[in-house]
Amino acid sequence: MGKNIVSIEDRIPKLKEARKKKANRRLITYLTIFFVLISIVIYLQTPLSHVKTITVKGNEQLEQEAIVQLSGVTTDMNMWSIDPKDVAQSIEKNAEIKSAQVDRKLPSTVAIQVHEFNRVGYMPEQSNYVPVLESGTILKEQAITRPGGDAPLLLGFNDPKILLEMAQELKALPSNIRDLISEIHWKPTEGNTTKLRLYMTDGFVVDGTIRNFSERMQVYPSIVAQLDPDAKGIVHIGVGAYFESFDQAPQEMEEEAETGE
After folding, report:
1. pLDDT at 149
2. Model confidence at 9: pLDDT above 90
3. Predicted confidence (pLDDT) at residue 2 exceeds the cutoff of 60
4. What is the pLDDT of residue 3?
């Protein structure tokens, strides 16, 4: 069988057409890249690239405006001049912020997500009260005339290390039990430097220690649930948890419970 032979004259037009198509495709690619680059330059040099919206989520204590101010981001800034990591670090300098995350969301939004330290108590400061965070930080610049009611009073905690331990235990304590605590007094003795006296919203007194407080305090609801509604006394949450009525408690302890001292 003979082979079909294509002459060079027949192949030349096809080669020219293929080269032309290839050149056209290359030109279109170059033009596309050129216009994309021009569009990017125009976008970056005009208000189109400016921040138009700043959103804040996760804040409960700090106002949104305060967090935006901490971030340093404004609506006249270029989206791409903002370093999310640097902005997050600026926000985290505030004592109430545990962590912050900042993201750019096209076309013109900066999204801020924060996690705050919980307020675990209030301490008296002259004639006012100041919040105490789970980190042990005292917010002296945020003094209020009366406690917020969202955390117990912490009295006698003049040792920063002891205060931090107490704050960490309160952080770990379930909120339904923490809400039952009205006051916590640090009552160190020679034999027990972590001794505590608690005054509860239901009228009972709790005797315990800072060590393992969050774990031992979890038996409190079950103990109280078994008591007579008119019973008054002290719930001990040491090695063995038990209830002691004021009739059985030493007179001095009963007087302290009545005065809250």
Report:
1. 85
2. no
3. no
4. 56
Residue type, 261: E
Question: Which of 70, 101, 116 is at the close of a domain?
Answer: 116
Residue 240, CB-side half-sphere exposure with 13 Å CA sphere: 3
What are the tens digits of pLDDT across the range 140-191?
A: 999 999 887 899 999 999 999 999 999 999 999 999 999 999 999 999 999 8
**Same domain, residue pair 226 and 97:** no
Residue pair 90/70 in contact by the 8 Å Cβ criterion? yes
195 & 140 share domain? yes
Q: Are strands 241-245 and 128-133 parallel, antiparallel or unpaired?
A: unpaired
Closest CA to 172 of 130, 216, 206: 216
Q: 3-state SS string over the chain?
A: CCCCCCCHHHHHHHHHHHHHHHHHHHHHHHHHHHHHHHHHHHHHHCHHHECCEEEEECCCCCCHHHHHHHHCCCCCCEHHHCCHHHHHHHHHCCCCEEEEEEEEECCCEEEEEEEECCEEEEEEECCEEEEEECCCCECHHHCECCCCCCCCEEECCCCHHHHHHHHHHHHHCCHHHHCCEEEEEECCCCCCCCEEEEEECCCCEEEEECCCHHHHHHHHHHHHHCCCCCCCEEEEECCCEEEEECCCCCHHHHHHHHHCC
pLDDT, tens only, 55-64: 999 999 999 9
Q: What is the domain extent for residue 91?
A: 50-116
Q: How many domains does the chain have?
A: 3
**pLDDT for the residue 243:** 92
Looking at the fold, whether 37 and 152 belong to one and the same domain comes out as: no
